[in-house]
Target: Drug resistance transporter, Bcr/CflA subfamily
Amino acid sequence: MPNLLLLSMLAAFPALSTDMYLPALPTLQALWGISVVEANMSLVVFFLAFSLFLLVHGPLSDRFGRRPVLLGGITLFIVGCGLCAVANSITMLIVARVVQAAGAAAASALALALSKDLYEGPMRQKILGYIGVILAVCPMLAPFLGGLMLQVASWRWIFACQAVLALVVLYGAVRLKEPLTEFTSGGVLAVMGRYRKVLGNGRFMAMTLAFSVMILPHFAFIGGSPDIYITGFGVSEHVFGYYFGVNALGIMLGSFTCTRLVVSFSSVRILFVSLFGVLAAGLTLAITGASTPMTMAALMFCITFFIGVSRPISNNMCLEQVTTDIGAASSILTFTIFSIGAGSMALIGLDWPSKPAFIGQLAVIGTLIPLILLWVMLRFFGRRPEQAE
Model:
C-alpha cells in the first residue's frame, strides 16, 4: 500500500468512527428512548477517550516503533467495532466506543508522526494537504453510506462495515517498513519526562493551542448536524447524507487548494486569508442563523473550506517547532485538537435558541485566537511562525 494512501486512511479513523453512524443517532434515540444529549454522549465520550489514548500511543511509538503500536491499535479498533455492533443500550454502546476510540487513537496519532518520519519541509506540507483531500472523502461519503445502509439493514451493520474497512488498513500496516532507526528508552517516568520536554516548548504549545481552537465550528457541526438537519429542518436520513457531504466537500477542496497555493504564496499569507474567510462566514452565520438547509450548507461549506486550507499549514507549523520526540509532540497536537473538538460537540448538544448561530459564534472565537497569536509573533517577536526555535 502506498505511504500516502496509508497515511490518509490512518488519519480518517476519527471520521470513519463517527460520521458513518451520524444518521443513526435519531434512530437510536427512538429505539432506546433517550434524549439528544444522551445520544451525543456516544460521540463525546469517544473523542474524550480518543484524546486520552493519543497521549499513550505517541510515546509508545517512540519507544517501541511505529509499526507494532499501529498493529495493536488497529486490532483494538476492530474489536471495538464488534462490541458496538452488538450493543443493546446506550450505556453498552458508550463502553464499546471507548474501546473503539483506544484503537483509533493509535492510527490518528501515528498518521502525523509518520508524516514527519517520511517527509520533510515543503514536501511534508504538500503531503499533509493531499492527505486532507483524501481524508475529506471519508466524511463526505460516510453519512451518505450510513443513510443508505439504514434503508436496507440495521444500524448495527454500520459498525460491521467499519471493521471491514479497518481490516484493509491493517493489511497496509502489516506491509509497512518500520521508519524509526533510533528508539527512546526507559519506563513510565522517562515517558513523562519526554512529555515535560515537549510541553516546555513554548512556541510549540502556543501554536498548538491557538490553531486547535480553529476546529471548534467543525466539530460542533458534526455533533449538531443530525439534530439541525433531521430534527430541525425535517430532512430524511438519506438526504442528510448529501447535506453533510457538502461540509466534507468544503474540507476536501480547501485542502486541495492549499496544495496549489503553497507553491506560489507564503504559508503565513495563506493562513491569514483562510482565517479571515472563516471569520467572515462565521459572523454571517452567527448574526443571521440559517433558516433553510441550503443556507446552512452554504455557510458551513465556506467555513470548512477555509479550515481545510488552513489545517495542513497550521499542523506543519506546529511540527516544525520540534526536532525530537516526534511521537509525543504529535500526540499532544492531536490530543489538543480532539479534546477541544469533544468539548465543542458536548456544547452543541445543549438547548441553544439557534444551534446554527451558536456554530457561527464558535467560528468567530476559533479564528480570533489564532489571528491574535500570529499578530503577536510577527509584531513583537519579528519571527515567522514556521521558524523553529
